[in-house]
Specification:
Layout lengths: L3 H10 L4 E3 L2 H7 L8 H6 L7 E4 L3 H14 L3 E4 L16 E4 L6 E5 L2 E5 L4 H9 L3 E3 L11 H7 L6 H4 L8 E7 L7 E5 H5 L10 E11 L3 E8 L2 H13 L5 E7 L3 H4 L11 E8 L3 H10 L3 E7 H4 L11 H11 L3 E3 L2 E2 L5 H12 L3 E2 L1 E7 L2 E6 L2 E3 L3 H13 L3 E2 L7 H4 L6 H10 L11 H8 L1
Parallel strand pairs: 2-4, 3-4
Antiparallel strand pairs: 1-2, 5-6, 6-10, 7-10, 8-9, 8-10, 11-13, 11-14, 12-13, 12-18, 15-20, 16-19, 16-21, 17-20, 18-19
GO molecular function, one term: FAD binding
Protein name: FAD-binding oxidoreductase
Keywords: FAD, Flavoprotein
Length: 450
């Protein structure tokens, strides 16, 4: 923690910037959606910043970085706080920098959008549509989520059925990042170098701008379908996801009893599996052909454009928003994040479904991974203990189902279970003092202690 004299000197250095040391503000800005995890709730209890600052320009970001470097004070970045793993919770106090003031859309042309890190995704998408384009990818939290927060703390979302994850080559073309130094320098990073900052929780660079590749704006139709048989619903999603001639924006499956738990009980009968499918208007014929083949019923259809940006959109029942709606009504649950390999995803889904039953309720998001259609799980779990949760995770891993553990704030433990060499090299390059969001990259801490 920072001594009072040093904190006062820091505030003097940042005079003129919007900032606060008020306890309510410190508590609010130091939290994200990590309350999804009962494990993280305990691990992050009492962790908060000592100063919140909200820069309005890159020059002000440089002032904050320079002052923190000069005084050796930790600096943690925050977008809108919609992450789930404590990405923006400071573990060692210091300064929390709210990037939402850098919210300009700098330009849109030739299928590319250049934006500041704090620009909200809903605003980027709406601006792109004025030029005939739209965002390729956005999380279900798109109404709040920022460009930088999505890139540094997110994975995929709406659009992943066609474009994969935000970290896949070609989706984010470049970033502008500042070094953490007494005289911060800006670097334009393209391609693979830019991706070294992807999903790194802001531990290895201060991103101020990003370039997103866009997609042609289409006339999308949102569809809610009901299937009496779970595996037929799974096969429907796999078949629709694999069709080449139908453009798709979202393909979500909610196994019984999840529709009854997340606000769809008035539309999906008990015992049925729900599917949310957003396809382009010309793709509706193919959707209905497959729906009939696999025994599904159309419950509702609506124009995506008419409900986009509102709670009426079926996006509300996809990705982490499904979990959010369930948590509001059911306090005894938590969740997982898993990945199924494309050549066996249907079989592995069936195995997990039969093995766990309603202890691990299957919420699947169909997406493209390495060019193939597969699915990712956001399973809803009836939580009993951390020990049982770890057993469930291990059973998935032992049976060939990848688990990106959402119950840890450590980068290596959450995903690949090993350090990303590119992320580590970028931290050495842009944050040699190790002041950015310390405590989240175990390998860096081990090197520093050696």
């Amino acid at each position: 923690m920072t001594d009072n004299e040093t904190l006062q000197q820091l505030c003097a250095d940042l005079d003129g910037l919007e900032m606060s040391t008020e306890d309510r503000a410190l508590q609010r800005y130091s939290k994200d959606f990590s309350w999804f995890s009962p494990v993280l709730v305990e691990q992050l209890r009492g962790k908060q910043a000592e100063l919140v600052v909200k820069p309005a320009s890159e020059e002000e970001v440089k002032r904050v970085a320079a002052a923190c470097s000069r005084h050796r004070i930790p600096l943690t970045l925050r977008g809108s706080g919609t992450g789930n793993y404590g990405q923006s919770t400071p573990l060692h106090g210091g300064v929390l920098m709210d990037m939402s003031g850098l919210n300009r859309i700098l330009w849109i042309k030739d299928g590319v959008a250049r934006v500041q890190a704090g620009a909200r995704l809903v605003d980027i998408d709406k601006a792109a549509r004025e030029h005939g384009w739209e965002l390729r990818l956005m999380p279900s939290t798109y109404r709040l989520a920022t460009a930088g927060g999505f890139f540094c703390g997110g994975f995929g979302g709406v659009g992943s059925i066609t474009y994969g994850s935000i970290g896949d080559p070609g989706n984010v073309l470049g970033v502008r990042a500042l070094s953490m130094a007494e005289q911060p320098e800006a670097e334009e990073l393209r391609g693979a170098e830019a991706r070294d900052l992807y999903h790194a929780y802001g531990v290895n660079g201060l991103i101020t701008e990003l370039e997103f590749a866009l997609a042609p704006a289409l006339d999308w139709r949102e569809n809610l379908l009901s299937f009496p048989d779970f595996m037929q619903a799974v096969r429907f999603c796999q078949a629709l996801g694999s069709t080449c001639g139908t453009m798709k924006k979202l393909l979500t499956l909610l196994a019984d009893p999840l529709p009854q738990m997340c606000g769809l009980e008035d539309r999906i009968p008990a015992g049925h599996t729900a599917v949310v499918a957003i396809v382009n208007r010309p793709g509706m014929d193919a959707l209905h052909e497959l729906r009939e083949k696999f025994g599904g019923q159309l419950v509702e259809e609506q124009s995506h454009a008419e409900v986009f940006g509102t709670t009426k959109s079926m996006i509300e029942h996809s990705w982490n928003h499904t979990t959010l709606h369930i948590f509001r009504k059911h306090k005894d649950i938590t969740y997982l994040q898993s990945g199924f390999r494309p050549w066996e995803n249907v079989e592995k889904v069936e195995q997990m479904h039969h093995h766990f039953g309603e202890e691990v309720m299957l919420h699947l998001e169909f997406l493209r991974a390495d060019g193939a259609v597969t699915c990712s799980g956001l399973q809803v779990i009836r939580y009993t203990s951390e020990e049982r949760l770890n057993d469930i995770i291990q059973f998935h891993r032992d049976n060939g189902v990848f688990v990106s553990n959402p119950h840890t704030y450590i980068l290596e433990d959450g995903g690949k279970l090993t350090v990303d060499p590119g992320q580590l090299a970028m931290k050495r390059r842009l944050d040699p003092q190790g002041l950015l969001n310390p405590g989240k990259m175990r390998t860096w801490d081990e090197e520093a202690a050696a």
